[in-house]
Design goal:
The protein is mainly alpha-helical. It is 57% helix and 6% strand. Strand 4 and strand 5 form a beta hairpin.
Length: 263
Amino acid sequence: MLTYPEIDPVIFSIGPLAVRWYGLMYVIGFAAAWFLATRRAQQGWSVIRPNNVDDLIFYGVLGVILGGRLGYSLFYGMKYVIADPLYVVKIWEGGMSFHGGLIGVMIAMWLYGRHLKLTMWQMTDFVAPLVPIGLGTGRVGNFINGELWGKETTVPWAFDVNGVVLHPSQLYEALLEGLVLFVILWFYSAKPRPTMAVSGMFLLFYGAFRFIIEFYRVPDADFGYLALGWVTMGQVLSAPMIVAGVILLFLAHRRPALRESRA
């Protein structure tokens, strides 16, 4: 058993301005995405050129932040929105949803893809391998904040949090949704793949990893278990991702006409 180190979520503050570890994790994630995108765009078969990378990351950041906040407000914080409509813009109070961020990024890629004359799926195929590092650092931020803990357990790698021994479900997500998903997608996308295939792999594996980890993670206090004494909101949102991932992979390999590339 390990003892939770009780890390101060604020790195430093200057007057009313506070720099937080959670925010820094987002910055690291975006910086990693930019670095990886720059490398991948240098491949001759890449649909994104090096001169497109900065704009691509800008659109992606907007999609993550706007979609993540709106998604959290709709999926998890509707009662707060009803009480205070301005809650949606109060990002400093915390609350970001991956599934909302995913929708936001897809919309952003569709918009930027129109400018580049590329389909949304061509865009998301390029972007998908860039995302997991940010997912992993974000979960490390949750761990530093001491939030999103798992259930009580006796496993030796559990953490003692105020006298209660808990699964470090944030670190499980950082490992699977971050490191493992990155390795799968980065190497799978290291050569040309049929359009929609990389996006399908992302949806399939992220959905499966998140669905499994939800068994160890304590459900949101406002929802609890939605059905059968174990179904959580995270699983309800992740199950369609698994199905969509399988469908995209099937279509990608079934329909040669969809195999678009720009050499």
